[in-house]
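Ticket 4471: requesting a sanity check on a complex prediction with zinc ion. Repro inputs:
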Amino acid sequence: MEYTNITEEDRELIDAATTVIQKNFLYGKHHVGSAVRSKSGKIYVGVHLESQNIDVCAEHVAMGMVVSNGEREFDSIVAITMWDVPKPTIILPCNTCRELINFYGPETWVILEINGGPKKCKAKDLITLA
Ligand SMILES: [Zn+2]
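Returned structure tokens:
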């Protein structure tokens, strides 16, 4: 698959996702932060929620924030984990997230870590990844 280099705006999105999980990390409850840039350029953030039997992904929460604020289109999204890693790290959205992001916006940029550095690809290209 072809990946695209990230921009300054993408770095800003990574920083926003990192900040939200650094501020709100709670062992056993909140390990992942996500940030979504809407088409208007505004950044929305969310952290994942967890109980014994349920996980609500940070991407779901961040996307819900976009829609709850009256916006409908996404430009880009990233998720950062602080679970079991030495420093905040970009993660690949899970299958459920990939499906949801693609359903809402197949042209949404998804920021990933590829060979140790951030890159991005379209949600529609990510949906086919196993
Ligand atoms: Zn997920």
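Notes from triage: The chain has a mean pLDDT of 95. Leaving this open until the requester confirms.
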